[in-house]
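ok new one. same drill as before - structure tokens go in, u give me an amino acid for every spot. 565 of them this time. try not to just spam alanines like last time pls lmao
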């Protein structure tokens, strides 16, 4: 990598500040003529621009967008979940990640999802309140508003409150993902009352009204963080969780805090990559892949060799994710080692340009054989402030449990912990003790909100997609670094390898017949997928032309919206 990853302690922190200040100076020489917003729902994008027109900045818009998404996109995010907000403030160049990731309740134990024989009971970590960690998104929105926004929280939450009270039209994405969960949601009467009609998925266009959620949001608008984590809302949440078999306490909610973390910074070609640090695995994995690719004349290789190198780099980055990464407040994550250029050179040394490396041949962990469930939005405002926010409830509709009287659908982020070393979670990801279940810990995430800053362009990028988030951001970033547009990035066909299972997943038609044959001959096992994945949102500021471009993933055309105005 660069000098940044050779520096340690205070020197590393000083160099980070220098790097980000340099970025700020480069980017802040002028301001964008227009604001760009790309989000997974047209209502959220519209509200974001409304807030900007009312005098808010990108951070105010982020609060409003996240809140609206929590109302109209409950399959992907919400106030029972959490996320990461990567920010860059134009006035002083401050770049920070707000970690609003969920925390395990203090009664959580290492073996809470194992049966008497020591085997994982996946149902316990996926469905119902036992699967839910303490939500972070409400605290994240309040922190964002109070420390970075211009407008009062009551103003930025008002559109979401109105949509919850008056209702929104049940859409294509809501419908597609609820179809998989209807039988489970029936088991939560409060959730079924809101989301189902006679126990079945509603028809498209059905009005979904959420009066209890409107009351919860109003409590936040009136009382800030205390409106959710203390008082009546907190008591009602805990009572509902415990009555249904969960282990939350009021103290768990009262003790929740967001954490401001220094972003990961790396370099690929002439672009600075600013991305999410642990407890996201995204930044470390993305940097590892870029570091490996930096050792090759990547752009001069054939498409088959490029894809081969991408797969081999993904394989090694995900192996390290499984072994080393976890909550940095509880485990020592060897970031300096993982991001050191010598370490990348060692990873490259095991890569053959003519042959796939079986994952079993890499020293690592033993594993047993073995979605669009998150959301992302990107913002650049007219002052040059940047927001890349990735929010989640984990699997679609989270734990499929709504705490009665709150309107809040709880996450099932406890499944993002490693319930047992080497045992895959719902995304097939494996892990070891670094990401073991533990009281107060934040589970490892793949969310990868990212800024790319080059000589002429500043880019905000991110996507949902579970374990595939990292590789999608990688592919989109490579397209943009190569000069592609926002539309090129969100449209690029996707391939993915995550170490285990040892297969190369591809979107349908992502590779032509010749490439499939060549990669198969090299020893790769290709598994074409019938469904597409991801929901990428990109905003690009071309500082040389002083123009702004935005694109929302075409895979959900007509649902998301990118707009520059």
């Amino acid at each position: 990598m660069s000098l940044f990853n050779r520096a340690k302690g205070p020197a590393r922190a000083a160099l980070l500040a220098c790097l980000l200040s340099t970025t700020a100076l480069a980017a802040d020489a002028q301001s964008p003529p227009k604001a760009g917003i790309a989000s997974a729902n047209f209502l959220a994008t519209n509200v974001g621009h409304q807030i900007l027109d009312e005098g808010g900045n990108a951070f105010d818009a982020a609060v409003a967008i996240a809140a609206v998404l929590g109302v109209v996109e409950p399959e992907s995010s919400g106030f029972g979940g959490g996320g990461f907000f990567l920010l860059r403030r134009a006035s002083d160049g401050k770049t920070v990640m707000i970690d609003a990731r969920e925390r395990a309740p203090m009664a959580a134990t290492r073996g809470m999802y194992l049966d008497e024989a020591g085997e994982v009971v996946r149902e316990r970590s996926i469905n119902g309140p036992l699967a839910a960690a303490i939500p972070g998104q409400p605290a994240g929105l309040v922190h964002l508003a109070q420390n970075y926004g211009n407008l009062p929280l009551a103003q930025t939450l008002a559109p979401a409150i109105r949509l919850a009270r008056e209702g929104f039209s049940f859409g294509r994405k809501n419908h597609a993902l609820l179809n998989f969960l209807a039988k489970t949601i029936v088991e939560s009467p409060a959730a079924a009352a809101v989301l189902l009609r006679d126990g079945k998925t509603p028809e498209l266009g059905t009005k979904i009204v959420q009066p209890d959620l409107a009351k919860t949001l109003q409590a936040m608008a009136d009382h800030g963080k205390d409106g959710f984590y203390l008082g009546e809302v907190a008591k009602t949440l805990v009572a509902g969780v415990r009555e249904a078999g969960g282990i939350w306490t009021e103290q768990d909610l009262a003790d929740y805090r967001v954490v401001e973390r220094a972003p990961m910074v790396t370099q690929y070609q002439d672009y600075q990559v600013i991305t999410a640090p642990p407890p996201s695995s995204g930044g470390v994995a993305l940097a590892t892949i870029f570091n490996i690719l930096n050792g090759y004349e990547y752009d001069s290789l054939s498409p088959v060799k490029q894809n081969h190198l991408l797969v081999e780099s993904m394989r090694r980055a995900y192996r390290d994710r499984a072994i080393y990464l976890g909550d940095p407040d509880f485990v020592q994550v060897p970031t300096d080692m993982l991001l050191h250029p010598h370490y990348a050179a060692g990873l490259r040394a095991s890569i053959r340009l003519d042959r796939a490396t079986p994952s079993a041949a890499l020293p690592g962990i033993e594993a047993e054989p073995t979605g669009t469930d998150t959301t992302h939005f990107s913002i650049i405002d007219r002052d040059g402030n940047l927001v890349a926010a990735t929010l989640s409830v984990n699997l679609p509709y989270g734990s499929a449990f709504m705490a009665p009287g709150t309107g809040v659908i709880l996450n099932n982020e406890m499944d993002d912990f490693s319930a047992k070393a080497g045992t895959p979670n719902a995304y097939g990801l494996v892990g070891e003790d670094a990401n073991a279940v533990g009281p107060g810990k934040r589970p490892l995430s793949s969310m990868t909100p990212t800024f790319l800053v080059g000589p002429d362009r500043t880019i905000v990028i991110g996507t949902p997609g579970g374990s595939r988030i990292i590789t999608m951001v990688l592919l989109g970033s490579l397209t943009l670094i190569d000069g592609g547009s926002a539309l090129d990035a969100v449209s690029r066909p996707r391939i993915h390898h995550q170490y285990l299972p040892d297969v190369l997943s591809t979107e349908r038609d992502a590779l032509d017949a010749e490439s499939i044959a060549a990669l198969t001959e090299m020893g790769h096992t290709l598994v074409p997928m019938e469904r597409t994945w991801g929901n990428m949102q990109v905003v690009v500021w071309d500082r040389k032309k002083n123009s702004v471009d935005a694109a929302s993933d075409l895979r959900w055309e007509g649902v998301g919206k990118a707009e520059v105005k």
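Confidence is low (pLDDT under 50) at residues 1-15, 21-27, 366-372. and btw The first strand starts at residue 36 and ends at 39.
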